Amino acid sequence: METLNKxxxxxxxxxxxxxxxxxxxxxxxxxxxFFVAPGKPSVGVINIPFTVIDGNSAFVIGxxxxxxxxxxxxxxxxxxxxxPGGGASSSERLYIHTRRLRDEKPVVIVMNGLVAxxxxxxxxxxxxxxxxxxxxxxNVGVVGISGxxxxxxxxxxxxxTGPHKLTGGSRQHWVELIDRLKEGFAQMVISxxxxxxxxxxxELLEGSIYSGSQAVSLGMVDAIGVTGxxxxxxxxxxxxxxxxxxxxxxxxxxxxxxxxxxxxVPPGEVTADDADDPAASHSDRDGAASExxxxxxxxxxxxxxxxxxxxNLPIEVGQPNIYxxxxxxxx
Length: 331
Hints:
Order of helices and strands: HHEHEEHEHEEEHHEHEHEHEEE
CATH superfamily: 2-enoyl-CoA Hydratase, Chain A, domain 1
Strand content: 15-25%
Helix content: 25-40%
Distance between the termini: 99 Å
Largest sheet: 8 strands, mixed
Structural class: alpha/beta
Number of helices: 10
């Protein structure tokens, strides 16, 4: 009996109980990790093929960004992007949306063939940017088409409360408005790129297109690389060593039934870009874009045409269109 008591005292002593508690903790922790806790972290990859940014595409891309933000297993995001830009409001919306994602998890942009104007604006919201040597990058600036058109003499039944009620302002006003948007775009790039940018504001606002290699030397892009490099960088920024890859496009398709694809807009089709109009697209009117037009379709019930509340107004009602768009592509 005395021998048994000595054995019990030895087993309960600190130099035995301490290591035993550690081993038990490791066993319990392992069980929780492998059977209770969620799987290993992942890097989410969003693929955006050649896409003009308009109300449709901004909505669809936004849902991809939302999925990447809301999935807790995704610790960092890579966006493979090719876009000549598009509508001003839609491009700004994607910049803001991407920046909100960046506030939650690291975001890396990988530029493919062409990332210009509004597409470049969206890229400014990322933590790090890769481009290929032959990528076409930049084109910081604005393309504008002024608002309503009026007949030489207004019908007597039309009364307005100000000289610019039907036009939104004089031509000089529209020029000044476009100039303010241009300045805002430039300040966004200067603020986001910071000391990495090695060009003056005046050079930036020339609206030039640069190769990926030139863009790196000018500080508009961080490095030369492809999607694999983007995944490694995103994991590094997130501080994860072992991870899987999540195809966000496939996940969004499973959730909503939307497949990211391109649709062709026949030359001469007149459409409009407006952040408040999910059925909107860009137009080739007045040379705002090239004849070979593409747009990202909205796969869902929101793509219905809206009723025009001014259909009985006896004048032609135009729509002001402002673009962050590389309009020279294909010329």
